[in-house]
Amino acid sequence: MITVENLTKSFQGVNALNGVTLDVEAGTVLGVVGPSGAGKSTLARCVALLERPDSGAIRVDGTDITSLDGSALRAARRQIGVVPQGDSLLRQRTAAGNIALPLESAGVPGPQRRTRVGELLDLVGLTDKATAYPDQLSGGQRQRIAVARALAANPSVLLADEPTSALDPETTGSVLTVLDRARAELGVTVLVVTHDMGVVRKICDDVAVLEQGRVVEHGKVLDLVNNPVSRTSSALLPAVDLNPINENSYDRVADVVLVGFAAVGALLPEAAHRFGVELNIVGGGLTRLGETPVARFRLGLNGERSDSALEWIGEAGGAVQRSLKGPQGVAA
Amino acid sequence: MRSATPWSDVVAYLVEATGETLYMVGVSTVIATLLGVPVGVWLQLTAKGGLRPNAAVHRVLSFVTDLGRSMPFIVLLVALTSVTRLIVGGSIGSTAVIVPLAVGAIPFVGRLVQNILSEVHVTVVEAAITTGASTLKIVRSVLIRESMPALINAIGVTVIALIGYSAMAGVIGGGGLGDLAIREGYQRFNDRILWSTVAWLAVLTTVIQLGFTRAARASDRRRHASV
Ligand SMILES: Nc1ncnc2c1ncn2[C@@H]1O[C@H](COP(=O)(O)OP(=O)(O)OP(=O)(O)O)[C@@H](O)[C@H]1O
Ligand SMILES: [Mg+2]
């Protein structure tokens, strides 16, 4: 759906983007994360057609959009709904009037415009705020109106730069829910720039880690968490605290990542049962990636067949990240 | 010692002069707005960070604007005599004053408008750009509409400034309140006319200022902010 190829952009000698290559599959949500100054916003602004890259291509449905001009440029912009960073609503227009702006730009006639605005207010759950002005809305409500505006002209791509950065956790949830509905109900492809791993945890299918203008990691969130050396897994999974006193009483200590209901629910008891070992969770915890429960546990095992039990867990779909005690190389 | 002008005559003087002032200032404000707003828009469009940045055009436009603003009105009044004659068919009277008043006010309005438009936040403008809006659409629906309260206030400021400038209209027989105060009041030692005119001018400008402030506030949706 969106393909970014070898994108470069520099500002007065500062290389903000150093050959960024990415792709976002249709109907999925990609989270772009990375430290401050990594080039996330620059990438987002290039895709939003607010900034022209120095070289490289951005394809939406196969068409390169980086070199368009005039009315072709404006038409391409309508294909890409943008939720800008920060307050971006017209303060002299009602919520409904703000949502109508892209429809006016597209020349949609009045009656159809009103119908569409009604649908979008419904989508973001703010039907009762249609006639409210931005100053009468909370930060989260304003952001949901901004999402509705971005979606008004039926874009195929939705782009959001730090859509939750100024919001408290609860409000963040309501904005993320709206982004998720956009993908689920409208089938748009979403690219969200964020520094909040919570956003990735809740709505992203894929993640790209940007550092110094380069993509250093890119893939499906659920694949990356299984990879012990990925930055994504250490950032997304529950921390396992070091607890030497606890660990001293076990023959084997290892970290394991479990993905999905079946694995989280049944794998460990079954391993203990099969191999007749004592298997305890001594650290870590459970989280959720989208709808999927994911656990990272530190396990303590006692018994002769502890290594076999760990091996079996690895074969049954758990990722045994490291064996902290006992022979190394047990990892699957 | 001659007796003071009867109050009924003072009122008659004031009524006539007020009519002349409002005519001169009103027409020139309309013209200055119609021409000055586009100048301001153009200045802002071509400015650095504007929608159509163009350093060369912007510099020339800025230079002409600032030159126009720094020109003393009295100089404009006499310097434009031949232009005025060409446009209105004569070079004296209230109508003739409108030309230099309007010409003097265009750069004034232009600069005010540019300053106001530049206050619209860049994120708001960029959000509109991403909707695929044309430049004209952004100027109308974003830059101008978002700035409406401030623009209305700016027109009010222009009216007050033009009332001040129009006091010099007497030089080319334009009449008006300023002329009344100077010629009938000050030069003829007629204190009653002088001070009545001064008082009336104070009332008039206050009322006008108040009217514009009200209109600006009425156009401002931000005032609805609750809690
Ligand atoms: N308009 C600009 N002019 C000059 N330098 C810029 C400009 N925009 C970005 N840069 C530089 O490019 C680099 C990348 O900036 P960018 O805003 O894309 O980072 P970011 O990843 O979004 O960071 P943050 O998380 O702080 O928002 C930075 O070094 C920044 O200073
Ligand atoms: Mg940024």
From TrEMBL, chain A:
Keyword Transport on entry: yes
Molecular function via GO: ATP binding; ATP hydrolysis activity
Biological processes, Gene Ontology terms: amino acid transport
Keywords in alphabetical order: Amino-acid transport, ATP-binding, Cell membrane, Membrane, Nucleotide-binding, Translocase, Transport
Gene3D superfamilies per UniProt: P-loop containing nucleotide triphosphate hydrolases
Claim: Translocase is one of the keywords in the record: yes
InterPro entries xref list: AAA+_ATPase, ABC_transporter-like_ATP-bd, ABC_transporter-like_CS, ACT-like_dom_sf, MetN_ABC_transporter-like, NIL_domain, P-loop_NTPase
Domain ABC transporter: 2-237
Protein name, entry field: D-methionine transport system ATP-binding protein
Source organism of the structure: Lentzea jiangxiensis
Lineage: Bacteria, Bacillati, Actinomycetota, Actinomycetes, Pseudonocardiales
TrEMBL record, chain B:
Gene Ontology terms: cellular component: plasma membrane
Keywords attached to this entry: Cell membrane, Membrane, Transmembrane, Transmembrane helix, Transport
Stored PROSITE patterns: ABC_TM1
Compartments (UniProt record): Cell membrane
Entries under InterPro entries matching the protein: AA_ABC_Transporter_Permease, MetI-like, MetI-like_sf
Taxonomy, superkingdom: Bacteria
Keyword flag Flavoprotein: no
The keyword Lipid biosynthesis appears for this protein: no
UniProt similarity note: Belongs to the binding-protein-dependent transport system permease family.
Protein name according to UniProt: D-methionine transport system permease protein
Organism of derivation: Lentzea jiangxiensis
